[in-house]
Amino acid sequence: MAMNAKTERSFWERTRVFFQQVRTETDKVSWPTRDEIRKYALVTLVSTVIFAIFLGGWDMVLIEVLKRFFTGTA
Predict the structure, then answer these.
(1) Which of 27, 30, 34, 61 is the most exposed place for a label (fewest CB within 10 A)?
(2) What is the pLDDT of residues 19-57, one digit of tens each?
């Protein structure tokens, strides 16, 4: 089905309005300060490292348990 100029113009107009509304809404957002972002990033990094160590430890324990179970070593 061929699109006429009016339909095409309508699409571009709707697209322009959409991006104007997006801009208006992002201006209303209370963005965190640079210092807050650093703090959040540090908390995320530390939490990730702690969780990785915890999971790695459990992984090693379970591997050892399964090795002993399947090889019959007590």
Answers:
(1) 30
(2) 999 999 999 999 999 999 999 999 999 999 999 999 999
DSSP string, 2-61: PPPHHHHHHHHHHHHHHHHHHHHHHHHS-PPPHHHHHHHHHHHHHHHHHHHHHHHHHHHH
What is the Cβ-side half-sphere exposure of residue 47, based on CA atoms within 13 angstroms? 6
Q: Are 45 and 39 in contact (CB under 8 A)?
A: no
Structure tokens given for 37: 């972002």
DSSP 8-state assignment for residue 1: -
pTM of model > 0.85: no
B/e letters for 56-65, b = 16+ CB within 10 Å, e = fewer, are eeeeeeeeee
